[in-house]
Amino acid sequence: MLLARRVVSRGDHILQFCHCYYGPFGDVARQYAELFRGTPYKVTTVYLTEPPSAEVAEQSASERVVFLNYSSDDVGGLKLGPIRALRKIVAEHDFRLVLAHRFKPIYIACWATGLPVIGVHHAFGDYDRLSHRLFARFFSNRLGLLGVSDSVRDDIRRNLPGWPATRIETLHNRIDVDAVRSGLYSPQAAREVLGLPSDAFIVANVGRLHPDKDQATLLRGFARARAHLPPGALLVILGTGRLERTLKALANELGIAEYVRFLGQVPDARRLFAAFDLFALSSDHEPFGMVLLEAMAAGVPVIATNCGGAPEVVADVQALFPLGDDEALARLMVERASWSVEIRAQTAEHNLKRLYEHFSDEAVRSAFFELSMVRKVLGNALA
């Protein structure tokens, strides 16, 4: 165990318990720690797996960060080791509340402490299993649940039909809009980093090469649209995964291989989003869609599947297409490519306003402290 400490003043403490910091989950810790900025509460963030990292500790925006560094084998079964470790941490401070991300940390937090626990769910299906539903019922008197979108929330409610609606709510993911925007490369510099031509129309997708992301529909849609897009238009896909060979073979089969760039895993990719002219999310029931927020922050028009959490982010039916419908996707690509500079600027301004109003740290902080499950434990912490 390694502890990365800042000065901790006296007062009430909040325990945040994360499964890992891989990918988007490092920023998730920051998001929830930032909720308590300007309140009397001090946040301790605990990572169940992955090794200590000074960079992650700093990014977590917490008074104290603990890396338990358990392996995947260690967190299987009854999880007795992690339960004992968390119990020791809880004994060190006057904790009022546990915020636990994903099912295993929720499970460990409930067994390790007698504290109120708010479990944050970032995916669908966490209560499909009977054992998980029985667990939730057992701890229902001190367990509240959040979904990162209404879609995830509704999935939980379907599996736990006896729970009051106020115990299963939505709290959207968010970004530090100003920080994301200030870290962006210019469009030209971003294209140079990615090795893209300066004058091509770029349609982009960022995500794992996995069936859930349905990049096959993206390829088919681009193949349909290509003849009607500006000459030299490219489809750029950032990410790695088990479908890489399959997707490259499909691009060949569709006759578009020379117009598709598979760029692999790109570090800190969101800083390069200004390189794109259009961002397309083709996912099958994306729980939320953080990449949509990042594209919007970069001023890039977005289109997405009309399922999962994406419609809540985009909030524009004209930018949505049915899952798997490559013809509808192609129409949206062609339509966006024909937009004037003025329309693109108006759309960017509208999307930025939406980010600040609904998906910024400040907007979601207010929503969090208005939740019944939070007010019951912390009262009016913003007063």
Helix and strand pattern: EEHEHEHEHEHEHEHHEHEHEEHEHEHHHH
Number of strands: 14
The CATH architecture name of the largest domain reads 3-Layer(aba) Sandwich
* Largest sheet composition: 8 strands, mixed
Q: Work out the helix count.
A: 16
> How do the strands of the widest beta sheet line up side by side?
1-4-3-2-5-6-7-8
Annotated CATH homologous superfamily of the largest domain? Glycogen Phosphorylase B
- Beta-strand proportion: 15-25%
Structural class: alpha/beta
Mean pLDDT: 94
Text of the CATH class of the largest domain: Alpha Beta
Radius of gyration: 22 Å
Terminal CA distance: 37 Å
Here the CATH topology of the largest domain equals Rossmann fold
Coarse morphology: elongated
* Total domain units: 2
What do you see in this structure?
Residues 35-178 form the Glycosyltransferase subfamily 4-like N-terminal domain. It comes from Pseudothauera nasutitermitis. Residues 190-333 form the Glycosyl transferase family domain. The chain has 383 residues and is of the alpha/beta class. It folds into 2 domains: 2-174 and 360-378, Glycogen Phosphorylase B (Rossmann fold); 177-358, Glycogen Phosphorylase B (Rossmann fold, 3-Layer(aba) Sandwich). 39% of the residues lie in helices and 18% in strands. The strands form 2 sheets. It has an 8-stranded mixed β-sheet with strand order 1-4-3-2-5-6-7-8, with helices on both faces. Strand 9, helix 9 and strand 10 form a beta-alpha-beta unit. Helix 9 packs across helix 13. The two termini are 37 Å apart.
